[in-house]
Amino acid sequence: MPTLRLVDPDGYTVPGAVHPNVPGAREAEVRGQLLREVAPVHAAEWADFGYDARAYQVIADPSS
Questions:
Q1: What is the pLDDT of residue 63?
Q2: Per-residue model confidence as pLDDT tens digits over 1-34
Q3: Domain ranges of the chain
Q4: What is the distance between the alpha carbons of residues 2 and 47, in angstroms, rounded to a whole number?
Q5: In a 10 Å sphere around its CB, with 0-12 CB exposed, 13-18 middle and 19+ buried, how is residue 4 labelled?
Q6: In the predicted model, what is the mean pLDDT of residues 34-51?
Q7: Mean predicted confidence (pLDDT) in 30-55
Q8: Starting from the edge strand earliest in sequence, which strands make up the sheet with 3-7, in order?
Q9: What CA–CA distance (Å, rounded) separates 52 from 42?
């Protein structure tokens, strides 16, 4: 099961946006939640630096 993490436009992991061992059946749900709910909040906090929620990505790290 992969670990999903939200990364900002600069490639840094957004604090609190790491979901370890996501089952395959929930992967799309978790990805959507990170992009729809977490990314806009984080981007708004950093809007003065040009952050835009549309530039965030969800990265899947394979399980170890």
A1: 62
A2: 899 999 999 999 999 999 999 999 999 999 999 9
A3: 3-61
A4: 30
A5: buried
A6: 96
A7: 96
A8: 13-19, 3-7, 57-61
A9: 9
Pair of tokens at residue 58: 């969800």
Contacts of 35 (CB under 8 A, 6+ apart): 6, 53, 56, 58
CB of 35 closer than 8 Å to CB of 54:
no
* 34 touches 6 (CB < 8 A): yes
DSSP string, 1-63: -PEEEEE-TTSPEEEEEEE-S--GGGHHHHHHHIIIIIHHHHHHHTGGGT--GGG-EEEEEPP
